[in-house]
Amino acid sequence: MNLFYRVEGVGKPLVIIHGLYGSSDNWLTVAKKLSAGYRVFLIDQRNHGRSPDSEEHNYEALKNDLAGFFDQQKIGKAIVMGHSMGGKTAMSFAADYPERIEKLIVVDIVPKDYFLLNDESQYYLHNNILRAMTELDFNRIESRKNVEEFLNERIDSSQIVQFLLKNVHHNKETHHFEWRLNVQVLYENLDEIISGVNARWFDDRLPICSYPVLFIKGANSNYILPEDFASIRRIYPEAFIVEIPDAGHWLHAEQPKLFMEAVWGFLKKAM
């Protein structure tokens, strides 16, 4: 899998991995700030952005894609930052390739099966989002505004709709709009995306102390709950946990200054 990627800056390598429905574009602002001290690689994960589509979408495949990317770019060891689904990819890769990790930053996700939240599970939110995206008939779409109107009727969050619209691409060859996401495959593999790289997955890898770890939580997000802190400590006994006030799941966009302060503070720690 030859992943699409962008590079900013020079110095020690730092790899950023986006989350579900995301792409390298979403993290360019963060990358440009970090490029003052690092060579920052931003990847598009499979079935996202400009990277290839695949019928397979699970964390084993995403981890192997990242390992292949390290090999292709001749990256021996790097700081790795992952957000949401990308955070699970990062944790999976770091656990199986600890020698390739200098530091690990996990953004608003924890190693757990999110089905355990039952009615509050992210599964229902994302199932509704992906179902709406699969039902959109681009043959009837004449503008991005049409897409926005369609999604607003089905998704009860203008913030999410605006984020999804970043994936709408106008194909110059077909003259049609299309998703820059493999929506059908993501829909079919949503169970794995929600439940994979959970606490049980780490049982034969405990404890993990071979690299420093930072978890960054959005105070208004339910992806990391207070009761998850014990699970984090069980897996990563020396992990740092920082909460960003007045921020939800996309905390790097909602509170960019506080987010960067947390990241720089961790990166500058002598360990």
Give a quick summary of the entry:
With 271 residues, the protein is of the alpha/beta class.
Query: What is the name of the CATH topology of the largest domain?
Result: Rossmann fold
Low-confidence stretches: none
By DSSP (H or I, 4+ residues per run), the number of helices equals 11
The percentage of residues in β strands lies in 15-25%
CATH superfamily descriptor of the largest domain: Alpha/Beta hydrolase fold, catalytic domain
Count of DSSP strands: 9
Describe what this molecule looks like in 3D.
The protein has 2 domains: 5-113 and 196-267, Rossmann fold; 118-190, no CATH class. It has 11 helices and 9 strands. The protein has helices at residues 28-34, 59-72, 85-96, 122-135, 144-154, 158-165, 183-188, 190-195, 229-235, 251-254, 256-267; strands at 5-8, 12-17, 38-43, 78-83, 101-107, 168-171, 176-179, 213-218, 240-244. The strands form 2 sheets. It has a 7-stranded mixed beta sheet. α5 (144-154) runs antiparallel to α6. The protein is globular and about 55 Å long. The two termini are 34 Å apart. The relative contact order is 0.14.
